[in-house]
Specification:
Elements (H helix, E strand, L loop, with lengths): L1 H26 L2 E6 L5 E4 L2 E4 L3 E5 L2 E8 L6 E7 L4 E5 L6 E9 L4 E4 L2 E5 L2 E7 L1 E8 L6 E7 L8 E4 L4 E9 L4 E4 L2 E5 L2 E6 L1 E8 L6 E7 L4 E7 L5 E8 L4 E4 L2 E5 L2 E6 L2 E8 L6 E7 L4 E7 L6 E4 L1 E2 L4 E4 L2 E5 L2 E2 L2 E5 L2 E3 L5 E8 L7 E8 L4 E3 L4 E2 L5 E5 L4 E9 L3 E5 L6 E4 L3 E6 L6
Parallel strand pairs: 1-7, 8-14, 15-21, 22-28, 29-38, 30-39
Antiparallel strand pairs: 1-4, 2-3, 2-5, 5-6, 8-11, 9-10, 9-12, 12-13, 15-18, 16-17, 16-19, 19-20, 22-25, 23-24, 23-26, 26-27, 29-35, 31-32, 31-36, 33-34, 36-37, 40-41, 40-44, 41-42, 42-43
Length: 443
């Protein structure tokens, strides 16, 4: 019995020592966990380990490892392992890269690689990792091509060359006259003469220019060839209407009788025409009337029983002028500017003294009278400019005053202002709250 108890005690002691020994052994090891590129291999003491991640149990210390993966340069590395702990290591490997040169015939083609334009041929694409690639080769007037290649190591690939197939031709469009707008396929491409490249096919070519009749032609563009298109444009005719006061006067165009006022002719070619009116008992009147392409020109003659005329420079535009109390017209502006006016010409004035009256509902004074004398067969030309003071603005000053006056000119800081006839001085904009401009056509 005692022997049996002794045997059991020895067995328990051995088991205890065995477990105690195992505990000390476990405490004397650590772990190293490696993660990195897909397919990475970890080499250690002649053995190769794989996994995602690679996990190794090691004794404490500093150990050397070799890391490698497809498409990456291998490298060495050291890891310190501590007992009872796991060292997690993220392995960074340098990818294997290479380059490729792409050329095309003809050169200058756009290279689209990975969805982006990289440049034009010849072109070198660098820093390509191991793998398969492709690119599009595009050039206007040529068919699109696609090339593919494979990078397996760091050695540059042989030159990749693509021969592009021509799918376009050149077209030259000339017009008479030049500077016409050119439309191809309904799209404005420029002005004549126009030279460009188009895909082979049939196109509607249209030429347009103001004052001319547009023309369109069907043009065939052949691959690899040049076609020249000459388009002659015809001027669009205008029209001329002639009226007189009194009516019933004979109308002569370039010396030939055309009709009796009121008279109108459509389809008049562009040019300057000498128009003469003759009416028994009245002096004849003659003018040169310019007819522009596609424009409707009107000429009104006031016939008088004598032949005389007068010319005046009157300002501002928009005021009325009368001869001997009879309304003759309105002063016309140059380029829609009241500051610049056309010469006011009055024809068919009887010989002798006359009175020119310049008036406007807002003028101060309301009107001006200028006396002049006309000689038969001669034109009276006034030496001085006739100016009528007409309020063209309403100023609201910052002190509350409101004035109606005339603005002769403006700068960023001042206005040239006239509160009444014969008075003119600059006013700083800093004193003005509001400027209301009054059109001369307004009563």
């Amino acid at each position: 019995m005692k022997n049996a108890k002794r045997i059991v005690s020895v067995f328990l002691a051995v088991v205890f020592l065995a477990f105690a020994g195992c505990g000390r052994k476990a405490a004397q090891t650590g772990k190293a966990e490696f993660s990195g590129p897909a397919g990475m291999e970890v080499s250690f003491q002649g053995r190769v380990f794989r996994g995602e991640p690679v996990l190794l149990r090691l004794r404490p210390g500093v150990w050397n490892f070799r890391f490698s993966a497809p498409g990456f340069y291998p490298r060495m590395g050291s890891v310190a392992v501590e007992a009872g702990r796991t060292a997690k290591v993220k392995v960074e490997l340098e990818p294997v890269t290479s380059s490729v040169m792409i050329s095309s015939e003809p050169a200058g083609a756009k290279v689209i690689f990975q969805g982006r334009a990289q440049g034009v041929t010849p072109l070198v694409i660098s820093d390509l990792a191991v793998g398969e690639y492709s690119a599009q080769i595009v050039r206007p007037g040529y068919g699109e091509e696609r090339i593919s290649w494979k990078i397996v190591n760091e050695r540059p690939l042989p030159l990749l060359s693509v021969k592009l197939k021509l799918t376009s031709g050149r077209i030259l469009v000339r017009t008479r006259p030049e500077a016409a707008r050119i439309f191809i396929g309904g799209k404005l491409v420029g002005t004549s003469p126009w030279n460009g490249v188009l895909e082979a096919g049939i196109y509607p070519v249209r030429a347009e220019r103001d004052g001319f009749t547009a023309r369109e032609e069907q043009v065939t563009v052949a691959s690899g060839k040049e076609v020249t298109v000459d388009i002659a444009l015809d001027t669009r005719p205008g029209s001329l209407a002639v009226t007189s006061e009194p009516s019933g006067a004979d109308v002569f165009i370039e010396g030939r009788k055309a009709g009796v006022t009121p008279w109108k002719s459509d389809g008049v070619r562009a040019g300057n025409y000498k128009v003469k009116l003759a009416l028994p008992g009245y002096d004849s009147a003659e003018r040169v009337i310019p007819v522009a392409p596609a424009r409707n020109e009107k000429a009104h003659f006031i016939l008088d029983r004598s032949t005389g005329s007068a010319s005046f420079m009157i300002r501002p535009a928009g005021v009325n002028f009368l001869i001997d109390g009879k309304f003759r017209g309105v002063v016309q502006a140059v380029k829609n500017s009241a500051a610049e006016t056309r010469m006011t010409e009055i024809d068919n004035l009887s010989p002798g003294p006359h009175v020119l009256t310049v008036t406007h509902p807002r003028a101060k004074p309301l009107k001006r009278n200028i006396r002049f004398t006309v000689e038969k067969g001669r034109r009276y030309v006034a030496r001085d400019t006739i100016e009528l003071w007409v309020a063209n603005c309403e100023l609201t000053f910052k002190d509350g005053r409101v004035e109606s006056g005339m603005i002769y000119g403006e700068t960023e800081t001042d206005i040239l202002y006239s509160p009444g006839a014969g008075i003119r001085y600059p006013v700083s904009r800093s004193y003005i709250r509001k400027i209301k401009y009054i059109p001369l056509t307004e009563k």
